[in-house]
Amino acid sequence: MPALNMCSVLFVGGGQREMGEEESGFVDMEWCLALPKIELHAHLNGSVRDATLLELAKDLGNKGVLVFSDVEHVIKKSDRSLAECFKLFDLIHIITTDHATVSRITKEVVEDFAAENVVYLELRTTPKTNETIGMTKSSYVEAVMKGLRAVETVEVVLSPCASTLEPEPSTSVNDASTKKKQGRIFVCLLLSIDRRETTASAMETVQLALKMRNQGVVGLDLSGNPITGDWITFLPALSCAREQGLPITLHCGEVRNPKEIKAMLEFCPERIGHACCLEDEEWKMLKSLNIPVEICLTSNVRTNSISSLHDHHFDDLYRVNHPLILCTDDVGIFSTSLSHEYYLAASTFGLSKAQMFELSRGAIRHIFAQDGVKAFLNEVFDSAQTGLLWRK
Ligand code: IMP
Ligand code: ZN
Description:
Helices cover 44% and strands 17% of the residues. The longest helix is centred in the C-terminal third of the chain and has 19 residues, at 371-389. The radius of gyration is 21 Å and the shape is globular. The chain is of the alpha/beta class. Strand 9, helix 8 and strand 10 (248-252) form a beta-alpha-beta unit. It has 15 helices and 14 strands. The strands form 3 sheets. Strands 4, 5, 6, 7, 8, 9, 10, 11, 12 and 13 form a 10-stranded mixed sheet that branches. The chain binds inosinic acid and zinc ion. Inosinic acid (IMP) is lined by residues 43-46, 89, 125-126, 192, 194, 223-224, 251, 254, 299, 329-330.
C-alpha cells in the first residue's frame, strides 16, 4: 500500500476509492452513455443519420435524379442481409457523394459520436472520384476535412499518424471558443480501399494517405463486399503503405474464405475487423499473432456473419485476454450506437462496470494516432473513473 492517507483511500483493482463508497450497480444504458469511449471502426457513409438520408433522397427525387418512393423503404428497412447492406451502400453513395454533402454528413457523424461521449474517433471512408462534378480522391478527403472544421457542438482535435517522422502537435481544427461547444473529441481518418478497386486505384489511396499523414490521416483500411475482389490485388498497395510505416486494418473473415484469411493474418496488420468466420487453424494463428480485433456485435448478427449474440467470439477472445475493441461499424445502417454496443456486451456476457471501464480504456493501446494522444486519453479515463465505478 502506498504511503497515502490509509484511512480514507482504498485501492481496488487499479481503481481508487474513498471510504464510505461502494461499488455501484449493474451496467445500464445510461452508464454506457456516460462512459468515455473510443471508436476505431466506423464507416462514414454507414454512419449517416436516417433523417439526413431521407431528406437528401427527397431533394434528389424533386430534382428527378431518383424516384423517392422507390428508395424510401430501402432506407427505412432495419433488418438487412450482408448483400442488402451493400446494395444500400450503393444507394447511399448516389445520395451523398458530392462535396457539400460529404462535408455535411462528416459534421453530423462527428457530432453524433461526441454526443454519446466518444472521446477519440477513427473515422474511415473510401475516397471517391466523380469526374462529372470534379471530384477526385483528394477533393473528397478535403470535403471530409471541411466537415470536421464545421463541427459546432464540440472541439475537434486532429492528430497526426503515429508513424509521422517529426512529432507534430495535435491541433484543434474548428473554433474551440464558441459557447455551444461541450468537450473535446480527437478525430483521425483512415482511408479505405474498396474491394472493387484495382491495384492502381488502391495505390492512389495509399499515396493520398501518405501525403496527408500530418493532417489527420492515420492509417488505411481494406473493406467492401467480402465476396468481391482478391487479396492479391491490394497487396502491392498495402505493402507500400507498410514500408512507409502507415498502420493498416483489414476487414477479415466476414465470410468463410480460409485462404484469404490466412494470407491476411500472415500480413500481420496492426488490427483486423470482425474475424467472424475463422476456422481452428486461423483462430490459433490470430491468437498467437495477438492481432487486435475490432468487434462489431450488432453488425455481425444483423448480417448473419454470427448466428446470435450469445455465440459471438467476443466471449472467447475476452476470456483469453486477446486484445479487442468494441466498435459500431455502421451506426446508421444497423441503427445502433457505441454506447448500445457496450450495453449489449455487458448484458450478454455478464460484465461488471469495472470490466467495461477497463475494456473501454484498453482501446487506447490500439489507436493509430501519436503517443501524446494516448497520454491525454488516459487522463480522460483517470478523471472519469471514480464517478463511474463508485457511489457514496
Ligand atoms: P464509406 O467508405 O464512407 O463510403 O462507407 C461505406 C463503405 O464502407 C461501404 O461502401 C463499404 O465499402 C464499407 N463497409 C461498410 N460496412 C462494411 C462491412 O460491414 N463490411 C465491409 N465493408 C463495409
Ligand atoms: Zn466495417
